[in-house]
């Protein structure tokens, strides 16, 4: 844990992870503090990058029926330029929600949200396969989701 964070900072972060719309007044009430120091601490946490942004989490199933896939991709070259080029390209695709450089048999794992299997096949054939450094792709498709959390345990 970062030494810059005291219990009040951690309390603010925990509460905001649960509900990013909490006002400073509500935070102060829940943490038994006054509003002014909570305002200052929240602003400092934002300026220091502990709070990156505030977002609304949408229910994917209510927006659209979509396929969630985790392709794992092995590259043919592992030079710094090759890794950076691949990463820069794939993170520009709107279908890619997450991109991880990983250890093991594969070099990258992506989290893809796409309408259906036909669209996923087109994504692989038109966007991933043509990249000059792609050697092998292994896909895992989500059947069901038991848990999805974005908050970090503090």
UniProtKB/TrEMBL annotation:
<dbReference type="GO" id="GO:0043200">
    <property type="term" value="P:response to amino acid"/>
</dbReference>
<dbReference type="InterPro" id="IPR036388">
    <property type="entry name" value="WH-like_DNA-bd_sf"/>
</dbReference>
<keyword id="KW-0805">Transcription regulation</keyword>
<dbReference type="Pfam" id="PF13412">
    <property type="entry name" value="HTH_24"/>
</dbReference>
<dbReference type="InterPro" id="IPR011008">
    <property type="entry name" value="Dimeric_a/b-barrel"/>
</dbReference>
<dbReference type="InterPro" id="IPR019887">
    <property type="entry name" value="Tscrpt_reg_AsnC/Lrp_C"/>
</dbReference>
<feature type="domain" description="HTH asnC-type">
    <location>
        <begin position="5"/>
        <end position="71"/>
    </location>
</feature>
<dbReference type="Pfam" id="PF01037">
    <property type="entry name" value="AsnC_trans_reg"/>
</dbReference>
<dbReference type="InterPro" id="IPR000485">
    <property type="entry name" value="AsnC-type_HTH_dom"/>
</dbReference>
<protein>
    <submittedName>
        <fullName>AsnC/Lrp family transcriptional regulator</fullName>
    </submittedName>
</protein>
<dbReference type="GO" id="GO:0043565">
    <property type="term" value="F:sequence-specific DNA binding"/>
</dbReference>
<dbReference type="GO" id="GO:0006355">
    <property type="term" value="P:regulation of DNA-templated transcription"/>
</dbReference>
<dbReference type="InterPro" id="IPR011991">
    <property type="entry name" value="ArsR-like_HTH"/>
</dbReference>
<dbReference type="GO" id="GO:0005829">
    <property type="term" value="C:cytosol"/>
</dbReference>
<dbReference type="InterPro" id="IPR019888">
    <property type="entry name" value="Tscrpt_reg_AsnC-like"/>
</dbReference>
<keyword id="KW-0804">Transcription</keyword>
<keyword id="KW-0238">DNA-binding</keyword>
<dbReference type="InterPro" id="IPR036390">
    <property type="entry name" value="WH_DNA-bd_sf"/>
</dbReference>
